[in-house]
Design a protein that fits this description.
Blueprint (H helix, E strand, L loop, with lengths): L2 H13 L11 H14 L4 H9 L10 H6 L4 H9 L8 H10 L3 H12 L2 H4 L4 H17 L8
Length: 150
């Protein structure tokens, strides 16, 4: 683990302290799964650091100002901003920004893979499970990620 990743992990764990996912699990489990997924897909230290922080700004846990001033590489910051959904933003615009940002697609691919994990979705009610599965499949299509998630 490089210093950028270690710093990002510590920051993300602190920022998301007390937060849970839709299944009621500690949010840090999702962040770790995405970071591990980036690593398994051949991602570098900057992408792994971005994976730890990928939801921090979107969830309001850290501000864009914090990110701008953080002791992180420019590429890591760019990836975090690219994968941060903006209120009212069309999925097509979100996908286009990810595709235009070097290194961001791999982070989003790992995020989608964990979000769409059948074991994670299994604990949700059927309507929510169906809605989320469709949402994740649509985003994979917009990003050109074909085949099975994972």
């Amino acid at each position: 683990m490089g210093p950028a990743e270690a710093e990002a992990e510590a920051t993300a764990r602190a920022a998301h302290e007390g937060q849970t996912d839709k299944a009621g699990r500690p949010y840090a489990e999702h962040l770790k799964a995405v970071a591990d997924g980036v690593r398994a897909r051949g991602g570098d230290d900057e992408q792994i650091a971005a994976a730890w922080l990928h939801d921090a700004v979107e969830d309001g846990r850290l501000s864009e100002r914090w990110l701008a001033d953080a002791p992180l590489g420019r590429r890591t910051k760019d990836i975090v901003l690219a994968v941060t959904k903006r209120p009212g933003e069309p999925p097509e615009a979100y996908a286009a920004r990810i595709l235009a940002t070097p290194g961001a697609l791999l982070v989003k691919e790992a995020d989608l893979a964990h979000n769409a994990d059948p074991a994670r979705l299994a604990v949700l009610d059927e309507a929510t499970r169906k809605r989320l599965a469709e949402k994740y499949a649509r985003m994979r299509a917009l990003l050109g990620l074909t085949g099975e998630a994972g």
